[in-house]
Design brief:
Largest sheet: 6 strands, mixed
Structural class: alpha/beta
Radius of gyration: 19 Å
Order of helices and strands: HEEEHEEHEHHHEHEEE
Number of helices: 7
Strand order of the largest sheet: 6-7-8-3-9-10
Strand content: 15-25%
Distance between the termini: 61 Å
C-alpha cells in the first residue's frame, strides 16, 4: 500500500510539472523580463497610493506609497495583522489592490496578462508564511520543482539544491519527505525553494518565525549571500527586530495598514514620496 501511495505521489508531481510547462513554455520576446542592468535610481518595485480592502470593510493597506530599489534589502515591520503579508501578496500579484498603482520592473501589474504574471513570478522568489511545501515529496523535489519549470538542467538543479541546503544547514535532510521535517526545517526549505532560481526579487514573509537564533543567523547570511552575489532585491516582512537591529538596511513600519518611518531609523533612510 505504501509503495502504491509513493508512486501515486510521484505521478501527480510530474503530471503537475508537465502541466505547468505546457501552460508556460520558455519565454519569448513577449514574455516578462526582469532587467538586470536597471539604474539604481529607478525603483524595481513602486507602489503609489495603494489601498487594499477585504469584504466587507477590512482595510489591510491604506494609501501606501513606497519605492524599493534594485539590489536593496528592505524590512517591513509590524505586529500581526498590520498589513505586511498583504503588501507581499500585492507585489507578487497574489492580490490586486482596491485602488492605486503597483509597478514591478516598470510594468503596471494591472495590465499584465495571466501568462505574463506567471512569467514574472519565475523571476520572483516568494517564501510564504505557511511554507506551501509538498509534504509527500522530498526536500530535494520541493526545491527542484521551482527550477524544473524553467527548464534548468538536472546537473544545475542538483548543484543549486545542494548549495542552498549547505548554506541553511539542511544537507542531511535532502532525501527526507517535507512532511517529516520540523516547522523550523520546513521554513528553511521554503526559503531555499524561493531562492532556487536566483530571483531578481525575493519576498520573504516572516522567514524566521519558527527559528532559533542559530537558524535565524543562517537565514540572514543567506539573504546577504543572495544580495551580494546575485544582486537580488530582498523584501522581508517580519516582527523579529533581531534580524535588522544591527544592520544599515532600510526599515519601514506598518500599523493598521499604514506605512511610516520605523521609529528607530533616521528619516533619511525612508523613501516615501508624494504621488
Amino acid at each position: 500500500m505504501l509503495y502504491f501511495i509513493n508512486n501515486y505521489c510521484n505521478i501527480m508531481y510530474y503530471s503537475s510539472l508537465a502541466a505547468i510547462r505546457r501552460a508556460f513554455p520558455p519565454s519569448d520576446k513577449k514574455g516578462f523580463h526582469m532587467p538586470r542592468d536597471a539604474s539604481t535610481e529607478k525603483p524595481l518595485v513602486e507602489l503609489v497610493n495603494v489601498t487594499k480592502i477585504y469584504p466587507p470593510d477590512v482595510v489591510a493597506a491604506e494609501d501606501v506609497s513606497l519605492r524599493i530599489y534594485k539590489g536593496e534589502i528592505l524590512f517591513l515591520t509590524g505586529t500581526s495583522g498590520a498589513g505586511k503579508t498583504t503588501l507581499i501578496k500585492l507585489i507578487c500579484c497574489l492580490e490586486t489592490p482596491t485602488r492605486g498603482l503597483i509597478e514591478v520592473a516598470g510594468r503596471n501589474l494591472s495590465r499584465i496578462s495571466s501568462a505574463g504574471v506567471q512569467r514574472m513570478r519565475q523571476k520572483i522568489g516568494v517564501a510564504y508564511q505557511d511554507f506551501r511545501l509538498l509534504d509527500k515529496q522530498t526536500v530535494l523535489q520541493n526545491i527542484a520543482m521551482a527550477m524544473e519549470v524553467t527548464y534548468a538542467s538536472p546537473k544545475l538543479i542538483r548543484f543549486r539544491v545542494e548549495e542552498l541546503l549547505e548554506l541553511l544547514n539542511l544537507s542531511d535532510k535532502r532525501d527526507k519527505l517535507a512532511g517529516e521535517l520540523s516547522r523550523g526545517e520546513q521554513q528553511r526549505v521554503a526559503l531555499a525553494r524561493a531562492a532556487a532560481n536566483g530571483p531578481s526579487l525575493l519576498l520573504a514573509d516572516e522567514p524566521t518565525g519558527n527559528l532559533d537564533p542559530v537558524a535565524t543567523e543562517l537565514v540572514i547570511n543567506l539573504f546577504r549571500y543572495l544580495n551580494e552575489r546575485n544582486g537580488t532585491t530582498i523584501v522581508v516582512a517580519t516582527h523579529d527586530e533581531s534580524i535588522y537591529a544591527d544592520t544599515e538596511y532600510r526599515v519601514m513600519s506598518l500599523s493598521k495598514g499604514q506605512l511610516s518611518a520605523h521609529p528607530s531609523r533616521a528619516p533619511h533612510q525612508i523613501e516615501l514620496f508624494e504621488a
